[in-house]
Amino acid sequence: MQQKNNRGFTLLELLIALSTTALLLLIIASAMMMGYRSEEKATERTELSQMERILAERLKWLLKGIYPYTRVTHTGPRLYFAGSSDSISFVTTSTLRDSDSLLEQSGMKWVRLYLDSDELKATENFFFLKDVEERGGISERTLFKGITEIEFQYLDTTESEKGTWYDSWSSEEKDYLPSAIKVKIKIEYREEEVQLPPIIVKVMPRRKAI
After folding, report:
1. What are the boundaries of each domain within the chain?
2. pTM for the model
3. Measured between alpha carbons, how far is 178 from 205 in angstroms, rounded to an integer?
4. pLDDT digits (tens, 9 = 90+) for 137-168
């Protein structure tokens, strides 16, 4: 006669089974978390790359169009270009898009770039006004928001072939344009300050024109 086996799970076997299940769940949860973090980091990189691209395109568009416009004043010829570490003003042939102002139709205008609170702003006016720098602009727009710090630097290659970077550029001391302009920018992203790669724009032409 066959004897029935009524033996069930022992406590040790039950603990081993529960431990194995818990370990498998932990591995699955860790894998899912790693996947989520990887996706989040990829999203962050994409967002930062897009912000950097938009900002760089707008700045390069304006700075590449810098024109060495010079007016004859009672003190002599004056180049309409001035740069400091936190702002820059110049005459440019580049026109800001999505604008219906008269400035868009002028073809060449005076522009000042500066940081106002956390906004990079551009002030525009007609380039031929004698007091354009003192007068200010008839048009002001925000190019980008969320900027915590901006720094302009100016390359002078007249002293050496390699050149020297300066934090300011005065038309009273130099009657020519810098060879290049470097822009360093920090932005606020997800409650953190992020340093973007420097934007370097070669300036052409450099000779003054009256």
Report:
1. 54-202
2. 0.75
3. 10
4. 678 888 899 999 999 999 999 888 789 999 99
Q: Give the C-alpha separation, 175 to 68, whole Å.
A: 9
Nearest to 184 by CA among 160, 170, 167: 167
For residue range 69-96, list pLDDT tens digits in order.
Answer: 888 777 778 888 999 999 999 999 887 6
Taking a C-beta distance cutoff of 8 angstroms, is the pair 122, 113 a contact?
A: yes
Read off the pLDDT of each residue in 14-19 and give the average, rounded to a whole number: 80
Report DSSP letters for the chain, one per residue.
-PPP------HHHHHHHHHHHHHHHHHHHHHHHHHHHHHHHHHHHHHHHHHHHHHHHHHHHHHHTB--BEEEETTEEEESEEE-SSEEEEEES---SS--STHHHHSSEEEEEEEETTEEEEEEEETT-TTHHHH--SEEEEEEE-EEEEEEEEEE-SS-SS-EEES-EETTT-SS--SEEEEEEEEEETTEEEEPPPEEEE----S-B-
